[in-house]
Amino acid sequence: MHPPDEREGQRIDNFLLTSCKKLSRSGVYSLLRKGKIQVHRRRVPPHYRLKIGDEISVPLGLLTHQQSPPLLSASLRAQLTRAVLYEDQLYMVISKPAGLASHGGSNIKIGLIESLRALYADQYPQLELAHRLDRGTSGCVVIAKTRAALLQIHEYQRTGQVKKSYLAMCSGHWSQDCVIEKPISFNGKRRGMRAGFVTNEGGQWARTHFAVCAYTSDSTWLSITPDSGRMHQIRIHALYAGHPLIGDDLYGDWRVNRRWREHGMHRLFLHACAIQWPHVFVRAPCPNDIFWVAQKFATI
Known about the structure:
Blueprint: H1 12-19, H2 25-34, E1 38-39, E2 42-43, E3 56-57, H3 74-82, E4 84-87, E5 91-96, H4 112-119, E6 128-129, E7 138-144, H5 147-158, E8 163-171, E9 178-181, E10 184-190, E11 193-198, E12 207-215, E13 219-226, H6 233-240, H7 254-261, E14 270-277, E15 280-283, H8 288-297
Parallel strand pairs: 7-14
Antiparallel strand pairs: 1-2, 1-3, 4-5, 5-7, 6-7, 8-13, 8-14, 9-12, 10-11, 12-13, 14-15
């Protein structure tokens, strides 16, 4: 198969996910890893970016099989319809609920992007995630309606023109505003799962601004602005500072998390409250569960 010229520069894994409806994300990675999907009869990694003239070899049947779109429950359909914060000809901004993954994958049948593609299949056939949020994080997620729109916002991200703001609650009393600029590496595990760590050698550059908003008896509300977009960046830098986020099952303190769950709080306390890029500013209202905690426990 030959990808259309307008797909030049797209990662091959994302191209295959939209072209081979039979394949899941984990299936794409498995076939690429085993060399069953090739470009010019050579293996390529998932991050390979398409070039004009590429010839992609795929197993027979993947392109002709059309998988039925996922069935959305009435409650999820209504929730996502209400979650649209902003929309223009190029983009949608969705207030992702905590607990919904940004995309499907291993052990996750359907995520936000698959749900939106099913919901808006007739209106917007090319919806793509412009970025991702962790499954436990709520708030602003940008969805591009076209390939050109996706490339445009990626360019904004590369040039530092996309700004994101978060609200979080961490354990203990964070003493003062600060900036943590420490590289992050994912070369180890934590609690049996792949996890990131601050490293002094190698790793990806990451910088996060933390500002104290309010205190409870044993925790701190923070306003957070990352200058980079590394996976788990805020959670890792908060742990490095000695104040892991409450409700974080991977990087957090399980004893603290257990006490908060006794109050009925079963989520990661991290909310993407605002995002902006040239000519656009969008704010996501605080979810009811976080708002209730803010009202009940804030002491400032």
